[in-house]
């Protein structure tokens, strides 16, 4: 400890300059004391003076001469100020001040918070809000360089206060001045404005409203505007719909644009609600709009009411009271339709599979110099069936073949269906690829497999409903987070369990193509939700190869579907091997002929890929052509006439074998181009000069 003027002070560190360090301490202490008073609420009635052009003479006024280290004045002592005014310690204490210590006259002066200096030397002395500390005592220090960047606190708060006040006033006027006539007096408007502002502060609106953004320099304020369409609406708007219905899409868009809350009941997603629709309206046509429990009509009635200008009044009239209990019920998350929960009469073969799971000795065995896990022999299964059914060996073998055809059991090497003897078999749930299959959740789906075409149609309807609710109108942006929390997606996840033992060999060529196109696009959405979007080459390889579904007892990755099934077992870009080796049973499912337009129907979840869509077997060709035209209209091809260059999507380079040579690709693309681009390409191809083909960079970022 050191002594200065009889007062103990901490020992200064070696090499430090006492005057500089003490000045810094005084500066920090002065500012911290002031800010601490602000935090404690002692500084009331703040009055920040905005002084961008403060006078240097005033700012640099000398502070009162109080020796550093001198004991603090006792209560009642007179403290002198440079303006010849005096105050006692008692008076300062009454004003909330314990005391003021100013630095030595030879030390640098403490720096006030920027913006607190007086604006001019002639300005009268004012209390600055810091519990009685005089503004003229806080002059600007001469030691501070003029180039130091400071923030004007007073100006900051004034600007934000004015901006926020203007916003609040404008928001209040939206609801209040809308119905005022042009002849009303200003005083009446002001009174109405104050009443409306008071109501807004006292009320808490729970309705879903629009969101507007105001960008203010240095501050972002998000203000929720009450939708004019929901004023006075207490009831509920409901409407029945179907997937891929134009009229339903128009009704949905209308309600969204007006900011009206509504409940959509898609009878393709909730089949049991179709019966309710018929009971309420007399037919199954959609859309059907209900205001509370009352049937309003369809799109025609909605357009008629909108065109007449009576929509607002009708909404308030029919929805002015809370929704009664007999209105169409809101779909509830997590509940399946009763019909889907009820099991049909259990097949005998399912009972046999359950018995075998309990009685067969499942163990690891050595076969062909390999350890085969979780398997049993054909002879063991035959013996269990004979004992359980009290039947002959021939019948037991026939039951084993039925179990193999329905994919309850598989040969460990996929060599035969079922034979009596030492051949090894395992249950489907014990296959080594099961952990990578995301449509398998713990146990095998033992229900009787539905026809593949039926499962495919259900998948098409549910996924179309998902896109209508959770994708942009042009399908270029997908809300994956919203999908993951939706009832539609929960039902989709339940549905794809039916794919485990479905038979895809029963599909026609168009049905097969549409089925696997839709499955690929649905799996991409599922994969993004479950494992996230890939961010690098290694992640992409894992994304397309490791995320799998069991379909008909076999594993299918995104790569297997695209290159193995839809491209007739062709190598993927930069790969040396085909997806399916010879003898793979999935080769029987692959299409016979490659259709190049499938590349415009497959969405891999990136911004450079085609937009996500789903297809029907009946309109497959037309839908694929439409997808190709849309892809090229969105930038899949660009033509530079001056440099004689055609810019094509990199997809056409990666899969060039499906389209042909480069010039053949350009000719093939022409049939899908709009008139202006097709004319430019025709001109470049017909004049005989060299044509340059450049492939665009691929944007791998997520289409969210």
From TrEMBL:
Chain intervals for the UniProt region annotation (Disordered): 1-129, 177-201
PROSITE patterns reported in the protein's UniProt record: DEP (PS50186), GLUTAREDOXIN_2 (PS51354)
Residue ranges with Basic and acidic residues bias: 18-27, 191-201
Superkingdom: Eukaryota
One GO-annotated biological process of the protein: intracellular signal transduction
Domain DEP: 356-429
Protein name: DEP domain-containing protein
Lineage: Eukaryota, Viridiplantae, Streptophyta, Embryophyta, Tracheophyta
